[in-house]
Amino acid sequence: MVTTYRNKKVLVIGLAKSGANAARLLQDKLGAFVTATDIKPFNENPAAQALLDDGVRVITGKQPLALMDEDFSLVVKNPGIPYDNPLVDRAEKKHIPIITEPELAFEISEAPWIGITGTNGKTTTTTLIAEMLNAKRTEGKAYLAGNIGIPASAVAEKVTPQDTMVVELSSFQLAGTTHLRPHIAVLTNIYSAHLDYHKTRANYIAAKMKIVANQNAADFFVVNWDSPEWQGLSHQTKGQVVPFSRKQVVSNGAYLKDGELYFQGTPIIAAEDIRIPGAHNIENALAAIAAAKLAGQKDNDAIAHVLKTFPGVKHRMQYVETWQNRKIYNDSKATNIVSTEVALRSFPGPVVLIGGGLDRGFTFEKLIPLLKDHVRAMVVYGQTKKLMAATAKQAGIENLTVVDTLDEAVPLAMHASRPGDVVLFSPAAASWDQFHTFEERGDRFIADVNQFIKENPS
């Protein structure tokens, strides 16, 4: 039993799912004296109301700096709260340890961890690993947790040594870890992302690589071998490096050769048999195969069955419907340009692309070659609509429509499509100009598609 926090004063900043669960765990199970603070007013804050009912001290509607005059031994912060937040900054200056909720989860977990991070492909890879480990399993269970939307601490409370925790870890979460040590760490890839939070690419990479900071020779680092930069990052682990590659044979890892996916020389599945489309999903499958094999899954047929039947994760290249010989895909998770590049490469064309969202000051010129090769028509909306429209014009796309909202964009994209087209919602921007989350945005897209099909039946 963890006694680290008994009779210690702990401040929890931010009451999203992970913060609320961390506060409850610390007070009810670990014996801490918890103060929880959240900027949302109390009457609009069900999490705060529930914590107050459980006896947790709650401060809402503000985050007073005067809190830092109290004798806190630890701060647990919501991963999305930046380190230049006044309360967090003051805690740092007072040398109070600051962690995120996965660190707490790791401390209490009795089950071994597989941790997955990367810029793209985390959720698909995480889900595939859990599915593979649960296939034909006779003892224990592989549990999904983390950035996938399930607080790791909630799962860690119930797991046993016979179970496995398969945990998606974002850079925001990893930045607040000190002792976290996955037995198997997976890096899907690293591109430039979240620089508004991390300030520099170097900081972003450093946060990601905390996933291997505490590994030892008994642990494993599954890493994408298709970039010299990512190969170089493998030197940061003391664990055993197990590469995966779509482009070359890596005999001690997972790789694609002559249309077949292998692990350490043994064929697992033909690439054409994998249900979810795209070269990026070949990479996700290779990463998942390597992690599952290292975690003890001996049945290659079980692994192959998962890859043949797995339909994809919602909002990530999610097949929605076919309407009059047009296939419609929801890729709302494409909150950056790299994700949309990956999506476009998955379809030879022709594509009718819907894009747009929060303006973070980026331009979209990197998309031009793919727009030229894959896209026949575009509908753009949101804060980035003018920037995306300018990029479309540079790419020579004449069938271009500019609107304000996603609700306007969907029917126009459907009308612009022709039989045989793919209608792809891959925004290349965050959702926060019009939606709270990319999930909410993706659900709206699906609802708009279904409404259009209802009004325009085949």
UniProtKB/TrEMBL annotation:
Belongs to the MurCDEF family. The lineage of its organism: Bacteria, Bacillati, Bacillota, Bacilli, Lactobacillales. This is UDP-N-acetylmuramoylalanine--D-glutamate ligase. GO terms for molecular function: ATP binding; UDP-N-acetylmuramoylalanine-D-glutamate ligase activity. GO terms for cellular component: cytoplasm. It catalyses: UDP-N-acetyl-alpha-D-muramoyl-L-alanine + D-glutamate + ATP = UDP-N-acetyl-alpha-D-muramoyl-L-alanyl-D-glutamate + ADP + phosphate + H(+). NCBIfam families: murD (TIGR01087). It is found in: Cytoplasm. Residues 315-428 form the Mur ligase C-terminal domain. Residues 116-292 form the Mur ligase central domain. Cell wall formation. Catalyzes the addition of glutamate to the nucleotide precursor UDP-N-acetylmuramoyl-L-alanine (UMA). Its main location: cytoplasm. Keywords: ATP-binding, Cell cycle, Cell division, Cell shape, Cell wall biogenesis/degradation, Cytoplasm, Ligase, Nucleotide-binding, Peptidoglycan synthesis. It is an enzyme of class 6 (ligase). One of its GO terms (biological process) is regulation of cell shape.
